[in-house]
Structure formats: C-alpha cells, structure tokens
Write a structure and sequence with these properties.
Radius of gyration: 22 Å
Subcellular location: Cell membrane
Number of strands: 0
Low-confidence stretches: none
GO molecular function, one term: gluconate transmembrane transporter activity
Distance between the termini: 38 Å
Keywords: Cell membrane, Membrane, Transmembrane, Transmembrane helix, Transport
Protein name: Gluconate transporter
Transmembrane segments: 26-46, 58-77, 97-122, 134-154, 174-193, 225-243, 255-277, 298-320, 340-365, 412-433
Order of helices and strands: HHHHHHHHHHHHHHHHHHHH
Mean pLDDT: 85
Length: 437
C-alpha cells in the first residue's frame, strides 16, 4: 500500500508540473505534504520534515551552485568563453570542425550552466555555418551534446552536485569518472550522430547571429582556459593529493579543507575575479553586478532542488524509503541500471533533467545507503538517465527547435535522439567503469 501511495504521489507531481503548469517548487511542497499525510506521518512532524529537507539540501549545495553560476557568468561576459572556442576551432581547422566544437562545448560546459552555454555558443555556431558553408546540425549537434553531458554528468552543475551531496559521494572522484564516461557519450551523440542529419533541409539562420566581443578586448588564451577550468584542476589535484599523502601528515587537514567543493568554488571565484575582472580593467562594482545577475539566473534552480529535498526527507522520516528499498532490491535490475531507469522515466514525463535526477535520487537513496553500490557511479547513472529523450515538455527542446529553425518532427529526429544516445551510452559507460573499480 505504501509503495502505491508513493507511485500515486509521483504521478501527481508529474501531472502538476506537466499538465497544470504548476511551478516545480510549489508542486514539490504540495506533494511532500500530501505524501507525508497519506503515509501517516504525524501532522506535528510533517511541516518540520519539509523544512528540514529544504534546509539540509540547500545547506550543502547553495554555496556550490551560486558560486558556480557566478564563475560561469563571468567566463561568459568577459569573453573568456569566446576566446576558448575560437582557439579550439583554430587548432582543429575546418575539416575537423565538428570535433573542435565538441571539445569546445565540453570545456565551456563545465563552468557554464546549460542554458547560458547554449545561448552563448549559438552566435559562434551560426557564424561558422555562414563562413564555411556548413550544415547547421553538423555544426551544432556536437557542441550541444557536450553541453548536455556536462550539465547532466558533471559537478558543479545543480543535479550532479546535489546527488553527490545526497549520496555522500566524493565530488573529485565523481568528476573524474564523469569525464571518462562523458567521452564516448559525446563522441557517439556528437560528431558520429550528426553525420546522419545531413539530409535535413537548411533554413536561414541569420536572424540568430549575435555580436562578438572584439579580439582586442578578449582575455588571453592562457587566462581563459586556466580560469574556466580552475575548479576541475583543483578538484583533481586535491583528490590525487589525498590519495598519495600520508593520512597523518600535517598537510592532510589543509588538503581536506581545500578539497571541499565549496572551498574549491570560492577559490575559483577569487582567481576569476582577478584574472577575468580586475586584470581586464573591470571595476569591482561591475564584477559584483555580474555576480548578482548570476544569482538571479539560478534562484529557481535552488528552489526546485530545495523542494526535491523536502520530498526526500518525508520519504525518509515516514520509513517508506526502507520498504521501497526492499522492494527495489527484488527487481531483476542492477542498482545502477535501476537508478538510470527511474531518472529516465521521470525525465520523459516531466521534462526537466534536474527534477528527474533529484526525484530519482530520493527513490534510490535507500539502496545507496546500504553500501551495495558505488555512490559516485550512481550519481553518473542517474545523471545519464535524467537526459533521456528530451521532447516537447523540455525547454531545451524548444530552444534547439527555434534557434535551428526546425519542425517538431525534425527536432525529435535530431535533438531528442541525440539526448537519448547520450543517456544510453552514458549508462553503458558507467557499467563498464563499474567493472574496473
């Protein structure tokens, strides 16, 4: 009966978000209260559980996500992203343009949120299309695949970062495994898959070309690359140092402090404020204004994550999580496949990769807590599932459709299939890595 109640409430959550267009944060709060009441949670504890879930979830994430948004905004507005993309295209040449754009999207996608990266890279894609007479999908799909993979697989993006915190995974290890899993997913969904789309008609894209920052005003290549990827470098270095260093060393506590994801992002912001801000002639007031705008961009994401945390807490406090875990363990699926499947189903129903990942995390958490599965790989498995078959209920679907001037059918043939390939190959990559660790 309890499992039926949870399934009913999840379906109601999907109904509210998808069909009634209720704000996801409000929908999560309503469903959290409804679920707790139907599961018999004492009314006096119900509101406290919701508040605790919100507080616990945001407490470990708000710094990472907000600082990550600030870094991404500065990378974009300073021209560092433009410098990185231009350098990579120049290095790869016209013949290997798709591979250059794929790598560009992946590097840019690590510090930038998906929507920011998408809008930022569109002018570059279309300028290349017109300059070299390329097919827009051959040019755009590799970069969009990279941006999507970074968004779904890699911290400090909202969903992966939230899953790392919920599962008590290691962010550096998750990032390392995530990069390994990302490579085949991006190659298959990007340069290889895009070759099957050359028969699609090319329509005018001039209306979407944007203005670029003059080359004389761009930061240097070295500064752009190092600043954009600084969180990655620092996470990898501290993870390796923690493995190699003697646990009794006097430096170990310092390594643990610096390796904390919040500290990594804080250090990265301090570096970026100088390299892409003050050093480029920007005033501190102007830089802080950029950071303020960045917080506005992720405010709703934070609320959605908080709402998902409230539902998770209700499931934990009510005790239904243990019952669900017992039931899930009887299904003929490995835990990693089960996590992927849950996220994929919710993604197809709801449309949001973030909501799909966070909702699936709450359902699969009891299995992760038993220690039967590697938490770092579960983050990636759910992340892969959360990208499955984007369609008409996903804002990314419509962004791609409108910018590339496609019909709904053509968008499903290109964008939706690309996302499905990313998801399936991502799961296969996780299962392969699982065999070696």
């Amino acid at each position: 009966m309890t499992i039926a109640i949870v399934i009913l409430c999840i379906c109601l959550l999907v109904f509210l978000i998808t069909y009634q267009k209720v704000n996801a944060f409000i929908a999560f709060l309503i469903i959290s209260l409804t679920t707790g009441y139907l599961l018999g949670l004492p009314l006096g504890d119900l509101a406290k559980s919701v508040q605790k879930g919100i507080g616990d979830t945001l407490g470990s994430l708000v710094t990472i996500i907000v600082l990550g948004a600030m870094l991404g905004k500065l990378v974009a507005s300073s021209g560092a992203a433009q410098q990185i993309s231009g350098s990579l295209i120049q290095a790869f040449g016209q013949k290997n343009m798709a591979w250059g754009l794929m790598l560009t999207g992946f590097i840019i996608g690590i510090p930038l949120f998906y929507n920011v990266g998408f809008v930022l890279m569109i002018p570059l894609i279309f300028s290349l299309v017109h300059q070299f007479k390329l097919h827009p999908l051959m040019t755009g799909i590799p970069m969009m695949a990279s941006l999507s993979v970074a968004h779904g697989f890699l911290p400090p993006h909202p969903s992966p970062a939230a899953l790392v915190a919920q599962f008590n995974a290691n962010m550096g290890t998750t990032l390392f495994y995530g990069i390994i899993v990302s490579i085949p997913a991006i190659i298959c969904a990007g340069p290889i898959f895009s070759k099957t789309l050359t028969n699609m008609p090319i329509r005018s894209l001039k209306a979407f070309q944007g203005d670029e920052i003059p080359a004389s005003q761009l930061p240097s290549r070295t500064s752009s690359f190092i600043t954009a990827l600084f969180p990655v470098f620092l996470l990898v270095l501290t993870t390796l140092a923690d493995i190699k260093m003697d646990k009794n060393s006097a430096w170990t506590p310092w390594i643990h402090l610096i390796a904390d994801p919040s500290m990594v992002m804080l250090i990265a912001i301090c570096v970026a404020t100088y390299t892409l801000g003050l050093r480029m002639g920007k005033k501190m007031e102007e830089i802080m204004h950029i950071y303020t705008d960045a917080v506005k961009d992720v405010a709703m994401i934070l609320l959605i994550i908080a709402g998902a945390g409230s539902l998770k807490e209700v499931l934990l406090v009510s005790g239904v999580s243990k019952e669900i875990a017992g039931y899930l363990q009887t299904l003929p699926f490995p835990p990693l496949v089960l996590g992927w499947l849950m996220a994929a189903i919710i993604r197809v129903c709801v449309g949001s990769a973030t909501i799909a990942g966070l909702t699936a995390a709450g359902m699969i958490y009891p299995i992760v807590s038993t220690g039967l599965v590697n938490p770092n790989l579960m983050v990636l498995s759910i992340g892969a599932g959360s990208l499955m078959f984007s369609h008409v209920n996903d804002t990314g679907f419509w962004l791609f459709k409108e910018y590339f001037n496609l019909s709904v059918k053509e968008t499903i043939r290109s964008w939706s299939l690309m996302e499905s390939i990313v998801s399936i190959v991502g799961l296969l990559g996780v299962l392969v890595v699982d065999q070696f660790i």
